[in-house]
Amino acid sequence: MLCPGDKTFYCGAGNRLNMYYSNNSTKSSTDPMNVNVTGSYSFYFCYKDSPRALSVSASSDSMSVDACQKLATAGGYTWFGTEYGRECWMGNSLAAGTANATASDCNMACSGMPGQLCGGPSRLSLYRKIAT
Predict the structure, then answer these.
(1) Could you tell me if 84 and 110 are in contact, meaning their C-beta atoms sit under 8 angstroms apart?
(2) Which residues sit opposite 2 in a β-bridge?
């Protein structure tokens, strides 16, 4: 039976259905993603947080990249990062000995905004203030 809305497609019939399969492997748009720019900060990299990279912290069950950015802006910090889905870390310099992690290590959704990535276990999704 032809579909009533588009006569170029079949839509099954009484006690019948047409099944379609797609082997398209694109990611779902609901997968959490890094925020490239928020306020006056831009995404820097996924960083190892051992030793502790930034010294000032806040945490919330409603954490998001935007919420952490607002805290960093209010405090006048150059750097901020989200970690473990609900932590926000801020500071004006990175501690000695900190290093890049692989991007896939920052894989936890933000507790307050599941469409955004908020670091991972001992991993910071790190943002730096854009020079003006």
Answers:
(1) no
(2) 10
Which residues lie across from 45 on neighbouring strands? 126
Please give the model's pTM, rounded to 2 decimal places: 0.75
Query: Looking at beta carbons, which pairs linking 66-70 to residues 24 or more positions away fall under 8 Å?
Result: 66/35, 66/38, 66/39, 66/113, 66/116, 67/112, 67/113, 68/118, 68/127, 69/38, 69/39, 69/41, 69/127, 70/39
8 A C-beta contact, residue 117 and residue 110: yes
Per-residue pLDDT of the chain (132 residues; tens, 9 = 90+): 676 666 776 677 777 766 665 666 555 556 788 888 888 999 999 999 989 999 999 999 999 999 999 999 999 999 999 999 999 999 999 999 889 999 999 999 999 999 999 999 999 999 999 987
Q: Would you say residue 93 lies in a domain?
A: yes
How far is Cα 26 from Cα 36, in angstroms, rounded to an integer? 20
Q: Is residue 75 part of a domain?
A: yes
CATH code, 54: 3.50.4
